[in-house]
Amino acid sequence: MKTDIEIARETRLDNISEIAAKAGIDRENLHQYGKHIAKVPVELIDENKVAKNNLILVTAITPTKAGIGKTTTSIGLALGLSKIGKKTIVALREPSLGPCFGMKGGAAGGGYAQVLPMEDINLHFTGDFHAVTSAHNMITALLDNFLYRHRGTDKYLKEVVWKRVLDVNDRSLRYIVTGLNGSANGIPAESGFEITPASEIMAILCLAKDMDDLKRRIGNIILGYNMNNEPFTVKDLGVAGAIAILMKDAINPNLVQTTENTPAIIHGGPFANIAHGCNSIIATKMAMSHADYVITEAGFGADLGAEKFFNIKCRKAGISPKLTVIVATTQALKMHGNVPLEDIKKKNIEGLKAGFANLDKHIENMKSFGQSVIVALNRYGFDTDDEIALIKAHCEQQGVAFAENESFAKGGDGAIELAESVVKLINEKPSPALQFTYENEDQTETKIEKIAKRIYGAKDIVLSAKAKKKLSQIKQQNVGVYPVCIAKTQYSFSDNAHVYGVAKDFTLTINDIVLNNGAEFIVAIAGDIMRMPGLPAVPQANHMDIVDGIIEGLS
Question: Which partner for 494 in 376, 457, 503, 538 could form a disulfide, CB atoms 3.0-4.6 Å apart?
Answer without folding.
Answer: 503
